[in-house]
Structure formats: structure tokens, C-alpha cells
Request: fold
Amino acid sequence: MTNKAHFTHRIARQRDIPDIINLMQLSIEENMKAFLTAEEIEANKESMGVDQTLIDDGTYFIIESAKDGEIIMVGCGGWGKRRTLFGGNHTEGRDDSYSDPLTEPARIRAMYTHPEWIRQGVGTLLLDLGEQSARESGFMTIELGSTVPGEPLYLARGYVEMYRETKTAANGYDNIIIKMSKSL
Reply:
């Protein structure tokens, strides 16, 4: 069993993208099973994935730990200073313009945990890093677009639901996005 003290973090780099994609896919496929059907998981994939702007802006973190003498990626996620609430490069309806920290929120974005490392503090560490960085950049509030599986963590961390949006995916199943907010 591992704990938060064994984690290190760093800013994601371009060369991390293949490993980030692998972690995202594994996290989506495994961690959502307790909450969603296989069809609903497929529907959720339309709004999930790598967002290049987070890496370009230096606001995306990699969480690492040692396993069997090797350093492995156990989580990834970050925060955005742009108006896009959720999604990857492929997600429709993006707004990549910058938010005004005095009047608009920062965004917690694209958080994923390796299935072998869930409930060990990875998500909490990612939230701490994102919130602190957003605060240091002058933001006073932070928002996120949660999936159903992510909602319990965000509620426990003081986020408040603003509304739920249901999108029908290409496969005909619903993808629920829960917009949540928190004061920094």
C-alpha cells in the first residue's frame, strides 16, 4: 500500500503525451465501471482526452511513484486558465481564450488516476496542486466539469454543484457533465 508521501509531481511535457493517453484510457475503462455501463463509458469518451493547451500553458501535472524499483505515472491532471471547462483537443465547443482572473474562474481539468492507485491521495494531490497554482495566478474561484465517477471526490473537497448538463453521444447514450465551483 502506498500513501501520499511517496508521490512526486512535475509539470507535464510534450514527450509525456503517449503515456498520458495510456493512463487516461486505462483510467476511463477501469475506474468508471463501478458507476457507468460500458455504453455510458463510451459516451463519456467524447468529452475526455488530452488537451494540448494545458501542456502548452504548463498547468498540467504528472504524479509519479515507485513500483518494483521503477518510477511510474500514477496520475495526471491540472488546471486551466482558459475558458474551456472540459474535454480534449477533439471536444466540440471549446473556447481556448484566456479567462480574466479578476472576474472569471480557473478550471480544474482532465484528472485521471491509474486504477491501482485510486483512493490513495492522487486526486487530492492533483486538486491541491491545481488550486494552489490557480490561486497564485490571481484566480479567486475555480470550476470544473465532473463526470459522475468524479463527483464524490469534488463534493468531499468543497466543490458545489451548479448544474448538470446531459449530452447525447454518438452511440445514443447520455454523457452527464456536472458543473461544480469552489472559492479559492
